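Deliverable D4.2, example record:
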Amino acid sequence: MSMFPLEIMKVTDKSMEPYLKYGNFIFIDKWGRHFAANDVVVFYHPKKVMLLVKRIIRKDGESFFVEGDNKELSEDSRRFGPVPRGNIVGRVLFKV
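Output generated by the structure prediction step:
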């Protein structure tokens, strides 16, 4: 667990438009451990070394199915499958 409960990250793609725009800054709650459908989360890609931001569509045990709001530009669970709970960094609290 990180020493700091919040982390700031810059959005670098368009997969979450219109909710998150390219260049927005997001504040991530890294201490929360309860995630639900419709939460926007930051997580490690299950098969690549990269962070992604997507919306939880549903929970299946200890895994989550995530999708980007902009379906045409989003690499998400439709492509790489479920995201294990351990890959989730935190929930997006707000954007600027």
